[in-house]
Amino acid sequence: MDKRAQDARGMKRGAMLTALLIGAFVAFLNENLLTNAFPGLKREFNVAASTIQWL
């Protein structure tokens, strides 16, 4: 395999890893924000906790 092919594979791998890390961070942040919003959503929509968790 020549040098350019190895460089191209490394760049794709790095881009994929970056995208996965950013996605994991956003998912983690979203989960934490929703956990803090649940009590307010329960009051606002007047529904049970089991209903809110499926939003």
Structure description:
The protein is mainly alpha-helical and 55 residues long. The chain has a domain at 22-55. It contains two helices and no strands. The protein has helices at 3-45, 49-52. The longest helix is centred in the middle third of the chain and has 43 residues, at 3-45. The mean pLDDT is 85.
Distance between the termini: 49 Å
| Total strand segments | 0
Q: State the helical fraction.
A: over 70%
By DSSP (H or I, 4+ residues per run), the number of helices equals 2
Low-confidence stretches: none
Content of β-strand: under 5%
Task: Summarize the SSE layout with pairings.
Blueprint: H1 3-45, H2 49-52
Keywords:
55 residues, mainly alpha, single chain
In short:
With 55 residues, the protein is mainly α.
